[in-house]
Specification:
By secondary structure, the protein is of the alpha+beta class. It is 34% helix and 39% strand. 19% of the residues are buried.
Amino acid sequence: MYIGALTLDILLGDVQSLKQKRSLIRPLVAEIQRRFPGVAVAETGHLDLHRRAEIAVAVVSASAANCDEVLEACERVVAFHPEIELLSARQRLFNDHEE
């Protein structure tokens, strides 16, 4: 069993309030969940900042290759949104043999 985790640090465009931020982040999270029903996704950081967001994605799979493939596809979904600038993406892989 492999667990893949992806953390995305995002800079939002012309956002002046937390309400505007939510109006961009919620549909993005929903799109990832819709395209990849087997993943868990949530906004996990920079909650009080207007123009920054952190989104985390997790997936469980029988193979490391599948974890990588799904997480890279999730990263591409975020990167292709023109109103969002992807500042960094950190991917980690865990397996059940680690102590």
